[in-house]
Specification:
201 residues, mainly alpha, Rhomboid-like fold, two-stranded antiparallel ribbon, 7 helices, 68% helix, globular
Length: 201
Amino acid sequence: MTAPHTRGVTSAGRGKAAAKMMLVWVAALWVLEVVDHATGHALDAYGIVARDPDGLGGIVTAPFLHFGFDHVASNSVPLLIFGFLAALGGIRRFLAVCGVIVVADGIGVWLLSPTDSITAGASGLVFGLFGYLVVRGFVERRLLGIAVGVTVAAIWGSTMLLGALPTDSAVSWQAHLVGLVAGVGAAFLFRPADRRPALTP
């Protein structure tokens, strides 16, 4: 008699934890941008400098830095939404997925971006989480996950796919494309061990 209630509490707890984490995450991006602005954009130097060995450290820091308030604003809403939806599957798993996306995307940006260019921003992670959400349900054969993926693709699909193409020299399409691919790969990498032969809720 208590099992349904326990599951409900667990689901609600996951939702609250996911929401709190993403709100803190996005707030931290804004705080960092305020600091960057106050210091004359000193933090911009900690982005990924393409093919510069000293710029490899930016792989870890770049997703938390932005080139201005418009830049961080453009990433805040999709990061909040995609991050929340992805984190509902478990915080540890979510952080592992983000780690794979950030590292893979950072290496891709370091290798593929124009020489000596500096790349920063959470958009690579945003594109990665988008790719992860779109395919996760199909990989895990879960109806709810498929519904989430279809909905996410229907709302943001065209915008995300265009963003992964080299249509704007001022935007790091390399980060978008590699992040997208990394997110899809993460869905396969972190699928549950108990693979189900049929669709489940």
